[in-house]
């Protein structure tokens, strides 16, 4: 990552709502409406943070079908670890993400049934 990308990522992780979204979605996939309640935030705040987290590939969205026929998205955290290393006057930020592929998601969904 570039220095600007590192700074943007660290700024995002410094945001209390972004952290709350990551924490909640690390437990289970959640809709934006559920995140609004759990994070005690307004819907626009939640959607803005989700967009920023998605830009950094820290959350992934899955399309869900409501029993009444409507579609909505749920979000799952992909962030596993962030490490910051300072060495010789330089800072390196490393992000570890989950690598759940389609087969893994299908298996998880099947097991949840």
UniProtKB/TrEMBL annotation:
InterPro entries: ArsR-like_HTH (IPR011991), WH-like_DNA-bd_sf (IPR036388), WH_DNA-bd_sf (IPR036390). SUPFAM superfamilies: Winged helix' DNA-binding domain. It holds the Pfam family HTH_20. This is Winged helix-turn-helix domain-containing protein. It comes from the Archaea. The lineage of its organism: Archaea, Methanobacteriati, Methanobacteriota, Stenosarchaea group, Halobacteria. Gene3D superfamilies: Winged helix-like DNA-binding domain superfamily/Winged helix DNA-binding domain. Coiled coil: none annotated.
């Amino acid at each position: 990552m570039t220095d600007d990308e590192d700074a943007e990522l660290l700024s995002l992780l410094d945001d209390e709502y972004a952290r709350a979204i990551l924490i909640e979605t690390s437990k289970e996939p959640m809709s934006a409406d559920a995140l609004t309640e759990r994070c005690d935030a307004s819907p626009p705040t939640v959607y803005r943070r989700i967009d920023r987290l998605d830009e950094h590939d820290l959350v992934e969205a899955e399309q869900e079908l409501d029993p009444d026929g409507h579609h909505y998205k749920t979000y799952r955290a992909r962030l596993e670890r962030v490490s910051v290393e300072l060495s010789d006057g330089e800072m390196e930020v490393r992000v570890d993400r989950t690598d759940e592929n389609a087969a893994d998601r299908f298996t998880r969904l099947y097991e949840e049934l």
